[in-house]
Amino acid sequence: MKRTKIKELLARSAPLDKVLVKGWVRTKRDSKEFSFIEVNDGSCLASIQVIVDAGTPGSDALPNISTGAAISVSGELVTSPGKGQAFEIRSHELELVGVAPESYPLQKKRHSDEFLRTIAHLRPRTNKYGAIMRIRSKTSHLIHRFFEEQGFFLIHTPVITGSDCEGAGEMFRITTVKGTTPASEDFFGQETNLTVSGQLSAEMMALALGDVYTFGPTFRAENSNTSRHAAEFWMLEPEMAFCDLVGNMDITEALVKYVVSGVLDTCAEDIALFANFVDKTLMTTLTSLRDDAYVRLAYRDAIDILQSAKKDFEYPVSFGTDLQSEHERYLAEEHFKKPVFLYNYPKGIKPFYMRVNDDGETVAAMDLLVPRIGELVGGSQREEREDKLLERMKELELPEEDYWWYLDSRRFGSVPHSGFGLGFERLLMLLTGITNIRDVIAFPRTPGSIEF
Amino acid sequence: MKRTKIKELLARSAPLDKVLVKGWVRTKRDSKEFSFIEVNDGSCLASIQVIVDAGTPGSDALPNISTGAAISVSGELVTSPGKGQAFEIRSHELELVGVAPESYPLQKKRHSDEFLRTIAHLRPRTNKYGAIMRIRSKTSHLIHRFFEEQGFFLIHTPVITGSDCEGAGEMFRITTVKGTTPASEDFFGQETNLTVSGQLSAEMMALALGDVYTFGPTFRAENSNTSRHAAEFWMLEPEMAFCDLVGNMDITEALVKYVVSGVLDTCAEDIALFANFVDKTLMTTLTSLRDDAYVRLAYRDAIDILQSAKKDFEYPVSFGTDLQSEHERYLAEEHFKKPVFLYNYPKGIKPFYMRVNDDGETVAAMDLLVPRIGELVGGSQREEREDKLLERMKELELPEEDYWWYLDSRRFGSVPHSGFGLGFERLLMLLTGITNIRDVIAFPRTPGSIEF
């Protein structure tokens, strides 16, 4: 007989004569005549209650069936007389599959997030971390489905790169040689790094295939131990040919709404856990993200708002300054109380590939600011004009020869195009209210931390 | 007006008064009264024919509209009088968006794969490479959809790893320091590498969530320049709790059939290109993969077949030898003429984590062998018994302390579980008949080759 997952059983509308369930014991209570076992199989947050009569085949294993043990139960799915759950299982046969001795670290009590990080291999067996992993999976699937429905092609841009294309951040170096062996004798014959962005590669594909996206691991070697930075994280980077900044914001807004709406619809139980125990404002944030029209505001106007705000910011702002998280959050959380696109940023604080506006001092950049997180998305219309691009590269002293292929795309059939980057873990923090990036990644990598 | 993609236009059942198309010129023919332009926008293999009457607004740009140029055309979608295509566009207005001077490398003539690798940033603009990128995208989407439908959770296992868990191959080292600085002063405080497999991490998640899969970039620092090896490639690794070797083969077979069937249904035009111009046997292979029941054969019986085969193999075989590609292909291509699972391999040629069978000399491993490729999938039931696992680790002199977390999973609620690895690029080579792995990856990484 094939096992049925608990998620399927609990979604049924009618009882069932014969079921086989396999999973891990969350709790067990014994009385003289029965034992009650809560079994969870990871398919959903809820466990199912199993009732084992004394004398049931296999019930001699009951003394060894403790929290964390794996069991197999065949029996009857019956309507539950208790509150909370529609069904429970009357066991006909019980099997202890794998014991969990008393040293099992996840005994029934609350554990701190800090402690659970030290047992990242076991923490997905808890309610909270099981829930975040299911939401992470569903969010990924929703992203893929959104882009597939919109006619985008998924591309895989390389992790190993020979260029530091954007200067987006500190890079990890990759090598197969030791000590002072010159890079020319290394595996690739030159210095190579872990990618900080797949954008430039994605542009090449968009200029052939139309609409594309890359979604994969991205790296920063920044030695800062904060709750918002990891050395390895996932980034979504769509790139659209024949698309301007307005189209870029349209797609960003449609994507975020699609994902939030999909998660609310399909992960209701897991989301409720976070809304109840992690962030009391979560449902308000998520319904706003799903239902509100996002504000679209020029950077220049944002500066005006921030300057006249009755608020003591740590960092002062004026035209030309890069906004800090405190400013971004003020705009989204306090001033507008909903997501805000800022666009047309000063040229000086943005990378070389962004399209220079007619005013000569701003570029067609946009950031999406959201409550609690600040910047969720950063994007731009790309500079498609070869002469303007070369001008910017000269200003920033970027060596033309390193970018020959990128420049080629502006020489041969260049078209207006746009794209953005969305930090996947930031999206997950937004969706769950979790405040430490280490807790939305299965096995996080941060300075000094490489276990598992 | 919003542009419509060519794929959508060609799928229509009726003409349309007003359309806007944007794309790249494949060819142009001029006559006195008309010009005929084939426009491709990457949404599908087919281009659409545009007819521009002399004197149409924008037609003064015609002399500069050459192969590779980007144009925008508004006009009427009319039934095509010619053969081959249902519709064409009568242009009302033409705009040259981006020129392509004569130096554009993709003029209309056949180019060698070798040459096209040197312009990997432009090659997706050709029929063949556009097709492979669309098939790559669709195949990814089908994989995600298959597992989502089966209730699997997508997990992201880390690329940066502190362990060389399997000894699966040579690894790239990651560093942020130079020269002879000791690893203890490096970013992670120890030596770290690029992952060769996410399996051990995936097992931890399967033992919490049930059925999971990881699908991401994987690395080998093997300095071999062959048509089948790349330093960076994508690997799919599902892992299933409460699943034995038979279940493992069942899921593998269902997945491959689902993907092949889906690609045949949704990428018919692109697949036809490969069937016509790359591999004349492609359709036979693909329909066999979709329709035939896969053979399931014990390794021991395969040895018998190979030993009695009327065929001169370069390498002799006997029980205990690792099969070579020639043996794998003989079984799948000549002897059975369909996909073959081999299972129960000798313990000595397989890694420590595979479950030892009761005979004490074989392990519950399985490989899926397919025509032309040889091994497409390698998997096993994992050793869930702590004592047996420790025994194997001692035999292979693996340090216990490095695997404390892996061993934990056998101490706390251990259950029978299985999984496999599928090389994504091998699958794409199987689906297209392409024989060089460099040609199914957007920007391939091989020894000495890191451009783009």
UniProtKB/TrEMBL annotation, chains A, B:
Aminoacyl-transfer RNA synthetases class-II family profile domain mapped to chain residues: 133-444
A Pfam family hit: tRNA-synt_2
Family assignment from sequence similarity: Belongs to the class-II aminoacyl-tRNA synthetase family.
Molecular-function GO terms, alphabetical: ligase activity
Predominant place of localization: cytoplasm
UniProt cross-references to SUPFAM superfamilies, sorted A to Z: Class II aaRS and biotin synthetases, Nucleic acid-binding proteins
CDD domains listed in its UniProt record: AsxRS_core, EcAsnRS_like_N
Organism field: Desulfoluna limicola
Entry superkingdom: Bacteria
Official protein name in the record: Asparagine--tRNA ligase
